[in-house]
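Inverse folding, one chain.
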């Protein structure tokens, strides 16, 4: 089972290249995984029909009792056959529906196949959390498929609406799953059904929350608005997702949980009332539609309400009827959607007011549609009739609530007959005053998929007893009545048949009176749910804008004062009420006089920041406080922390300085003296409150410190550096998360600078700065008085004479340059001392960074501080030689280092799955010819990933805030001629 699911996702990854190579024929290859799943399910028919199951289990998150658990029973067998079988036919249908010129066809094919895999996982999942994961995967892929034509506003809006409704329902359902798992003591669905928890308020709340998710997925009122709008998707999506698969997920979940929770309040009244209401509203709305797809869409909403009533009734016979109706609905609704696509493909329209005489032009298509439509209208001897008879009879034999639902079902069936006739008449009949519609011939391969499904309705009508064992195995989970219902095409001329005849007669009358029905419908129509949804979104957006305008004033000091005031008030309130300092040992002011001296100097520098008006001075003073903190770490005996703090402060100060080049020298906000005096106490009180809270937290420790255990664990692995071992081994999950956040932040910051591209290649012409050498323009390929070359020339592409900035003819005595691109700078912007220092320290600092990386197991260091150190080396070259020097030093994009580092860390973490858990550590010991005895651990590989990631982040920030700003300054500089003028 797991292999079948994974095959869907694996092949979906290759859908785009397959489509590029083979065109629409690639859909035939992509149909193989669902076809294999359908064949496998057929081989297990006898087992599941006999009440047996197939299971797969893998311990996933044992601490949380969450497993990769799959289970095939009778209900799952039925749903697998529908999801995989209809999915196979839809993919085959796509090969004829699309052509090789269709836009983004590869992405569509991959999303459709991935959805099939997610749906397969959903119906097989035997764990609540696993079911939720597949549930949301179907939501995501549905969003992508509905929004396939994303350049159309309607598609984007419909996709967003479907995502909003179903995702919110899914999140609500997740809360219900967690409550249910807590009450039951397990998340295993089969275990919960076998031994359900006793009724309680918490269980009732869990049931309601779960039903919200199920009803939103199956478009039950009041969540039914998204399904008709989803018809903006291509027709194959409508046939699969919105007829046979996704919308059945909610009904499936109701049917799955009904044996255990049908008696829990308010399960039955909630489902019977909302299902009946949805059945009537959807059927009535379908009579007013003129688009063939919308007729079927609202008809689907109506039918889903009927299925919800049957599945939610929670009885043996209604459960049998529900599964028969689930099968029948998929087999008649999917071919009708596919036929609609054929009609649209052949004529270019789905408007039934413009279609006329198509039954004579496309007789085979008409025959398939009539067969499927007759099954939808429950005409004998088709499967739809047998399923409808079962539904009527079982509701008739049920409770009082079931009989009320039966009345709604009969009325809904009349509406079903009416909109079925409207569909068939609108698509294929010849209409007075409407010219016959032209249509091109339909290939047999195009018609084959809907024909197979329609013929299944015809075959399984008389053959419905063949389904008794499988569907009865699901119904056996309910208490059986004395005389249980058995599926058959003919049960005699009873009351159920009379109700069916009444529904047919009522439907025919509604169709014949279509004019008055339309007028009454428009007169009674309330405000469109779609408009209500749009109004709610607009009101939410306006409220958000008003709140944002109220609190977001654009003043960073105001934000800081507000944040610190709220935090300070909360801390003071807790301190006053709880008095947590009781029993807390008094703090020691210092362990050594050196600490006191460093602390006093650091506090003095911090106080000086309060009265600073120049930005540069504030940055320097803030950096000094960071260096003072690092010195405290040194005095406390924490070299790893001190080394990291020094590197972070150095890089941070350099970045600040780079940014300050584009900012005013002085702070622009002018505060009166009293406002400044009001803010100082807030800042000082905030710092004091944090210090007090830390003192109380440290003094209230009751459990044994984890430090001793970590030291012992580090020594057990033959290592000495506890801090580095914690970061890359014992708490590597935290490091992975922080690395991902760091990479995302760097990408976000630099993306704001690089609006169009993230590389300095193919630059626009940059004019020389005033005072530059005549040949300084070679950095962009523009030499004064000459036409620009075909390719830009940069400093590392120029000759050594050109890069030295010498005029032509002076090549005999070239000037010595310490850096490759330093001559591209104007003389007043160069510093020979800085160039020499950068040249001398560059390689030693890089070697030092590698040393800090490799020695981290036993000495201070690590991937983070090593990456910062390497970054400082490249920053030195940039400061000395400018942006072209940085480009010469780093020939690759910074994003390559970031991505490679994140990939290496993640791959190392996933490699631990070979031993059963993510981030499982292992160590290799061996002997190398020259090196001698050596060992290599996953912690080192993980740390290498951190090293590359941090280096990439530093380079990306320097290129964005340094090199990019350099380009802006150069472009803003006047021409040399203008300067001389």
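Residues assigned per position:
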């Amino acid at each position: 089972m797991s292999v079948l699911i994974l095959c869907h996702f694996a092949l979906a990854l290759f859908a785009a290249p397959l489509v590029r190579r083979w065109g629409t024929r690639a859909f035939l290859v992509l149909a193989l995984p669902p076809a294999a799943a359908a064949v496998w399910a057929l081989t297990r028919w006898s087992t599941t029909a006999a009440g047996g199951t197939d299971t797969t289990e893998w311990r996933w998150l044992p601490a949380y009792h969450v497993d990769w658990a799959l289970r095939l029973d009778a209900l799952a067998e039925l749903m697998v056959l529908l999801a995989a079988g209809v999915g196979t036919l839809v993919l085959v249908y796509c090969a004829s529906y699309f052509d090789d010129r269709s836009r983004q066809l590869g992405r569509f094919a991959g999303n459709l196949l991935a959805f099939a895999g997610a749906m397969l996982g959903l119906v097989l999942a035997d764990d609540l959390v696993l079911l939720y994961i597949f549930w949301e995967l179907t939501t995501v892929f549905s969003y992508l498929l509905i929004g396939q034509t994303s350049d159309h506003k309607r598609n984007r809006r419909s996709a967003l609406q479907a995502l909003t409704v179903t995702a919110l329902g899914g999140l609500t359902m997740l809360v219900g799953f967690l409550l249910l798992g807590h009450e039951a003591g397990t998340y295993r669905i089969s275990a919960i059904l076998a031994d359900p928890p006793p009724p309680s308020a918490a269980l009732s709340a869990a049931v309601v929350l779960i039903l919200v998710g199920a009803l939103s997925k199956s478009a039950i009122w009041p969540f039914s608005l998204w399904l008709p709008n989803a018809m903006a998707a291509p027709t194959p999506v409508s046939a699969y997702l919105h007829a046979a698969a996704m919308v059945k997920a909610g009904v499936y979940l109701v049917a799955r949980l009904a044996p255990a929770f049908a008696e829990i309040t308010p399960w039955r009244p909630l489902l019977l009332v909302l299902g009946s209401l949805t059945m009537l509203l959807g059927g009535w709305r379908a009579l007013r539609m003129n688009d063939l797809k919308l007729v079927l869409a609202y008809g689907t909403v109506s039918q889903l309400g009927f299925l919800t009533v049957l599945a939610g009734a929670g009885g043996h016979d209604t459960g049998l009827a529900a599964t028969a109706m689930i099968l029948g609905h998929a087999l008649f609704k999917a071919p009708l959607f596919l036929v609609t696509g054929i009609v649209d493909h052949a004529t270019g329209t789905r408007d039934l007011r413009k279609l006329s005489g198509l039954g004579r032009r496309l007789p085979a298509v008409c025959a398939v549609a009539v067969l499927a439509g007759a099954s939808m209208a429950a005409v004998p001897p088709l499967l739809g009739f047998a399923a409808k008879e079962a539904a009527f009879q079982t509701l008739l034999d049920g409770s009082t609530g079931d009989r009320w639902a039966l009345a709604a079902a009969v009325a809904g069936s009349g509406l079903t007959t009416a909109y079925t006739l409207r569909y068939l008449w609108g698509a294929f009949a010849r209409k007075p005053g409407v010219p016959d519609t032209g249509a091109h011939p339909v290939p047999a391969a195009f018609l084959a998929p809907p024909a197979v499904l329609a013929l299944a309705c015809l075959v399984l009508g008389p053959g419905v007893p063949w389904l008794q064992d499988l569907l009865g195995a699901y119904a056996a989970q309910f208490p059986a009545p004395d005389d249980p219902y058995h599926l058959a095409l003919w049960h005699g001329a009873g009351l159920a048949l009379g109700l069916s005849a009444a529904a047919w007669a009522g439907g025919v009358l509604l169709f014949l009176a279509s004019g008055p029905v339309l007028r009454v419908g428009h007169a009674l129509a309330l405000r469109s749910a779609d408009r209500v949804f749009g109004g709610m979104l607009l009101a939410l957006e306006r409220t958000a804008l008003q709140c944002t305008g109220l609190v977001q004033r654009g003043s960073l000091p105001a934000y800081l004062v507000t944040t610190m005031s709220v935090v300070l008030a909360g801390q003071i309130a807790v301190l006053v009420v709880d008095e947590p300092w009781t029993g807390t040992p008094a703090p020691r002011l210092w362990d050594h006089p050196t600490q006191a001296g460093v602390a006093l100097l650091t506090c003095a520098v911090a106080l000086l920041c309060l009265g600073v008006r120049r930005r540069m001075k504030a940055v320097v003073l803030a950096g000094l406080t960071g260096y003072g903190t690092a010195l405290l770490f040194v005095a406390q005996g924490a070299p790893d922390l001190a080394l990291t703090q020094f590197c972070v402060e150095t890089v941070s100060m350099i970045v600040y300085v780079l940014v300050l080049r584009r900012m005013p020298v002085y702070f622009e906000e002018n505060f009166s003296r009293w406002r400044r005096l009001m803010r100082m106490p807030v800042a000082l009180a905030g710092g004091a409150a944090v210090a007090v809270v830390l003192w109380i937290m440290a003094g209230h420790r009751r459990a044994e410190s984890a430090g001793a255990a970590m030291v012992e664990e580090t020594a057990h692995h033959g290592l000495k550096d506890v801090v580095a071992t914690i970061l890359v081994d014992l708490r590597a999950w935290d490091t992975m998360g922080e690395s991902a956040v760091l990479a995302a932040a760097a990408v976000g910051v630099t993306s704001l600078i690089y609006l169009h591209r993230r590389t300095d290649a193919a630059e626009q012409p940059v004019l020389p700065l005033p005072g530059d050498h005549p040949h300084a323009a070679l950095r962009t390929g523009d030499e004064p008085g000459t036409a620009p070359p075909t390719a830009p020339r940069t400093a590392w592409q120029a000759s050594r004479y050109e890069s030295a900035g010498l005029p032509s003819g002076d090549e005999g005595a070239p000037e010595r340059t310490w850096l490759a691109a330093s001559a591209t700078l104007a003389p007043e912007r160069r510093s020979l001392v800085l160039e020499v220092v950068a040249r001398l320290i560059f390689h030693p600092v890089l070697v030092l960074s590698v040393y800090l990386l490799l020695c981290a197991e036993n000495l201070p260091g690590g991937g983070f501080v090593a990456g910062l150190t390497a970054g400082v080396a490249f920053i030195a070259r940039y400061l000395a030689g400018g942006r072209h020097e940085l480009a010469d030093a780093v020939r690759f994009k910074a994003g390559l280092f970031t991505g490679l580092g994140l990939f290496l860390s993640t791959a190392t973490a996933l490699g631990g799955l070979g031993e059963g858990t993510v981030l499982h550590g292992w160590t290799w010991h061996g002997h190398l010819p020259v090196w001698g005895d050596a060992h290599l651990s996953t912690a080192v590989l993980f740390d290498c990933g951190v090293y590359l990631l941090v280096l990439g982040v530093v380079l990306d920030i320097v290129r964005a805030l340094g090199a990019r700003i350099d380009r802006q300054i150069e472009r803003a500089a006047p021409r040399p001629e203008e300067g001389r003028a």
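Residues 938-972 form the longest helix (35 residues). The beta strands are 54-61, 66-72, 923-928, 932-937.
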